[in-house]
Structure formats: C-alpha cells, structure tokens
Amino acid sequence: xxxxxQSPQNLTAQEEEFITINCSYSVGISALHWLQQxxxxxxxxxxxxxxxxxxxxxxIATINIQEKHSSLHITASHPxxxxxxxxxVSDYGGSQGNLxxxxxxxxxxxx
Amino acid sequence: DGGITQSPKYLFRKEGQNVTLSxxxxxxxxxxxxYRQDPGQGLRLIYYSQIVNDFQKGDIAEGYSxxxxxxxxxxxxxxxxxxxxxxxxxxxxxxxxxxxxxFGQGTRLTVV
Lengths: 111, 112
Known about the structure:
The complex is a heterodimer of chains A (111) and B (112).
Chain A: E1 4-7, E2 10-14, E3 19-25, E4 29-37, E5 43-49, E6 52-56, E7 59-64, E8 69-74, E9 83-91, E10 99-101, E11 105-110
Parallel strand pairs in A: 2-11
Antiparallel strand pairs in A: 1-3, 3-8, 4-5, 4-9, 6-7, 7-8, 9-10, 9-11
Chain B: E1 4-7, E2 10-13, E3 19-25, E4 31-37, E5 44-51, E6 54-57, E7 64-66, E8 76-78, E9 87-94, E10 101-103, E11 107-111
Parallel strand pairs in B: 2-11
Antiparallel strand pairs in B: 1-3, 3-8, 4-5, 4-9, 5-6, 7-8, 9-10, 9-11
C-alpha cells in the first residue's frame, strides 16, 4: 500500500535553482510533516503543517487538504541542501503513534 | 545541548544473538519511538511509548522488544527471533504523540 507518494524519487539541480518536491497522500490526516535526512542518516524535522503554508528561511511548505497534496520548495538552492527529503502524515485512521512515511526524494544540488 | 543520542552508530552482531540499541533524550519529551529504515522504503514504526512504563507495538514489532523505565531512555532489543535484523534504526521523541519529532542519528545494525 502506498498511502504517501513522493515525486520525484531523485532530483538533481544546479545551485541557485528553485526546487519543488511533491507529496500526495490518500488517507485523512491530522498533520503532514516534512523531514530532511542527511547522508549520515540523522533526520531533522523541517515542518509540521495542517493547513496553508509555512516558511523557514529558504524553505517553504504548502498543503492543500482538499487535494491531499503538499509541496516543499527550496529557493536559491545550495549544495548543502543535498539530502533526502521525506514526507510523512499523521493518519486519523491509523494506529496511534504511527506516522506514515513516503519513500523520500533524494536531492543533489551541484555547484 | 538538548537532543537525542543513539549509540552505537554502527553495530555488528552474529546471527542468533540478541542486541540492544540505546536511545537517550534530554528534551523532557514524553513520547518516544523506534523506526526501522530499509533501502528504498519509508520508515516503519517498531514500537512507541507515550509515557514511562508504557509502550505500544507498531507495525513491525515482531522480533523486537523495548522498555521504558525512565523518561529519558527507550532501549530497543533486537532478538534472535527477528528474521531480517540488518537495517538502519532510528529513535525519535516528541513532546506529545505525533507532534514535531526530534530524531537521533541512527544506528546501522549488521547481522552476519
């Protein structure tokens, strides 16, 4: 079952490019999370949102509840943005404590 | 500095041995989680705990055990019953269940 789908799977960009990563989900959710996983494996939570839009530095996350879709944008991308970006949802109908994760989008930003 | 510490970063064990992965947090978070990550797959929940002395099975709990004797600590034991234990294991914590989670750096377990 693929309740959370991310696209693209892999993305290569040139420095300064505007980047968009998409996430679609098929379940009712209470919140959507964007996470960043660096090559060493550690994960950092970027955003948690349930409506509208959030911005933090060069990162912007949007969500459309009706369309069950979220996007993560990176403006003026930089090689240090290279990481795997993971979308996860808190599922209303799922077991408590469970986030449903997408498989991630591997981003590589070239100088 | 507050955070989550997982140790060790890399762990090798022989098949048939139990192994315990450590997870400690000093964030004063009530909820803690263990996830497993395999190549090409999303993270999957093994166990979670909302409060001391209480924990719940996740989607893939078979072959694993946990304890939550202290708020700060949530160790995971990979038992010999786990059929495919080689994986990357991530521990996380949050103030309350399913709020913004803080993750550890992970432990890569290889069973030979």
